[in-house]
Amino acid sequence: MNNQEQLTPAEKEVFEALRQPVQPDIQLEDRVVNALKEEGLISTHSGWRQWTLRIAASIALLAVGIIIGKITYSPMETTSQFNYMLVLYEDSRFTPSDPEEMFTEYSKWMTGIQEQGVTIDGQEMKPTSLFLEPDGSQVTTENERRVGGYFVINATSLDQAIKIAKNSPHLKYGGSIEVKEFMIR
């Protein structure tokens, strides 16, 4: 439209009506819902039956999962993956070297054992011990001969466990090793 064109009074009235807010028909929602029901796009039935079936299916799947878990889980596999303990003793003959050097040497020894397919784990122990006596008293000691650490392994035999112990850097530093077999029942 250019400036020379003028709106008729009817056109002005239509434009003015467009500026006013429009209220939808109050029964519009009911007509749309009824039309969707007739087309089968929404259901008028309650969903209790479907909910019941879904819950029952979920419970059944959970039960199957628990049963399968119990069948495939074998507690013996995780309770005793080790069958020998190497107890490392230290006394006045034990002469450690640089801690970093010793750590590297023990780590290399453990890696070699793992490469043979033997599971190994261990820990160094603090020099003091706490003994609990039958009467409940506690005695803290620092013995001449003390446990300096331990390793647990899964060897195929006592001979293999002894061979592993003989190759330990602990013997090189003057320590001694006790090889103990677990009593697995």
From TrEMBL:
SUPFAM superfamilies: Dimeric alpha+beta barrel (SSF54909). InterPro entries: Dimeric_a/b-barrel. The chain crosses the membrane at residues 51-73. It comes from the Bacteria. Keywords: Membrane, Transmembrane, Transmembrane helix. This is YCII-related domain-containing protein.
